[in-house]
Fold these 2 entries.
Entry 1:
Amino acid sequence: MPNNAPKSAEVIIDVPFFDVDAMQVVWHGHYVKYLEVARCELLRSFHYDYNEMSESGYMWPIVDMSLKYVGSALFAHKIKVTATLKEWENRLRIDYLITDVASGKKLTKASTTQVAIDMKTRQMCFESPAVLFEKLGYAKP
């Protein structure tokens, strides 16, 4: 990616009470929500959020997700979720790192893969559409 194109974004999340179990540990399913918050911030950073995707004629569903839990996020702790765009030529692959803000301790590693679907034909695209390359500051090869 060009040096001037944003390729990473981070968000800080205050772990809310309604995301934790009786031991005040975040329930594993809520991490997906945290990834989504960081992914939206990353997409906004290069002006291709979900509204802009739709306006361009494409939807980008998640087709694969992987999470590795290393430590536990706890109630009232602040966590940092960093989303980094790793692939974009044929799909969007985003890697994530969730850390505890106070300690810097790594809590979770994750990745998601999204593919472009032409909204008119409902067909999957085998390479990313030109609009994505434009948003990232590239000419499509």
Entry 2:
Amino acid sequence: MAILFFNEGIKFNLKPKNSYKKWLREIAAKEEYDIKDLNYIFCSDEYLHQINLEYLNHDTYTDIITFDNSDEEQQIEGDVFISVDRVKENAIKLNNTFEVEVQRVMSHGLLHLMGYRDKTKSEKELMRKMENSSITLFNQ
């Protein structure tokens, strides 16, 4: 049940790490999932753009890319790449604090690993509802 945090090409310190780990486990448990191996990699816009080009063939900037590595149902194994640059921009654009926006994208990646999608309007609405519920859970 490892949840690990990494930086790639940037300096970023997620504090307090244990609070985030506990929170992520609580989100998963609410949906009856177990976290087996979950990695969050915080990086720059350029780093994430290269991943988007190389692995997804998308020439766009994004705040998050999630790779699902799980083999078993209800078990989470994955890598979540987050652009700290994009999170900072989105926080300003959405009139959120940086911390809340970090929580939003972290929960977003985890929700993807639990099967939530965000392609259609109804999927996006449900995803946003689940993100907001996750943020509320963090602050309890």
